[in-house]
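Re: the 414-residue chain
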Amino acid sequence: MHESGSYDSYRLSQPGPNGWPVPSDPQAVPHPRTGTGFAVGPTIPIPAVSQAMDQSPALSPGEPHSGGSYSAGDIASAEETVSAGDRVSAGDTASADGGRMSPAPRPHAPAGTPEKEVVVSRETEDPPLAQEAKRAVEILNPSGEITMPRPVRRRIICVANQKGGVGKTTTAVNIAVALALHGNRVLVIDLDPQGNASTGLNVPHHAGVPDVYDCLIEGAPLVDVTQPVDGIPNLSCIPATIDLAGAEIELVSVVARESRLARAIQACPVEYDYIFVDCPPSLGLLTVNALVAAQEVLIPIQCEYYALEGVQALTSNIALVRSHLNPTLDISTVLLTMYDRRTRLADLVEQDVRNHFGDKVLNAVIPRNVRVSEAPSYSQSVMTYDPGSRGAMSYFEAAQEIAERGARVREAGA
């Protein structure tokens, strides 16, 4: 480094008589450790450097030094005793190279050892947008090529849980849409006076619209109150209006009040593969009508403690209905909803449910997903609102599992 503070590139000339390399730049000083390159630091006067170089005799191996000589063994032992602090550091190398770090030497393999070829795979996963688009095409199934197994006979599934807010309506709507999009003929009966299933399927359910109340109280046939769902050819819905809120009181004096819905379904001439009955969050006459009419019960269970308490009361009522009104009723499916993988409570609830119900619990688990909550505000299911979301994919897997289980039951019965 010159006194001006600038760095120049240095070039070594031939070694001098005393063995030290003579720099071409008079202001450059050889590195005190390596003997090659130049130290970056304060400028040392040239006369002092020349005097020090003249007083240092050139030494070679074997030449006497302080009453002895350097042998090859002495040099090797001296190299082994050099501590880590005495070795040239990366900073020294960087300084010697003018600030550029020299790469470490590549270790040599022993003689005769074949070098391993590094195989770099060129196969990479699709980007996230491509994966989402692929899932959307699989769920919407615009070409109709992807189909789910159809049952050999009609399956009537009651979606029930006396605990509110566990995802009964969301489960009934999305599983029904998934099955309908993949080749099954599906009917959804909204038996909840709130009419949320009708909203999710974009079916009118204002006052004056023919609804399930007419079937229960006035004995109207299902065909007269059934409405097709727009955009999904194989899906139909029987809506619920506010009139259904007083149905439980009116059913008290009706003959065979527990089997009104069952008779209406049996008299329906339309052949459906699946009929889903969305029950209210109670154990009143409306839920009892659904349990008597159904063959199977699908229980959505939120991954929280309060939902487990509701299941205990529901299973007791199912046992009463099975013993007195519907001997063929069976809890066939349990679905875990609103699963939050960040909490340990969700894992504990899942373990308890799987230990209690066994194989009846679906492998598919519905996670907490904002798209599932947003879809009803647009009068859509999550399958059509955002088919590439995690919620849509989870409900698609649940529907596929339900269909495959029905096919296995059919094969076992055959």
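The first strand starts at residue 12 and ends at 15.
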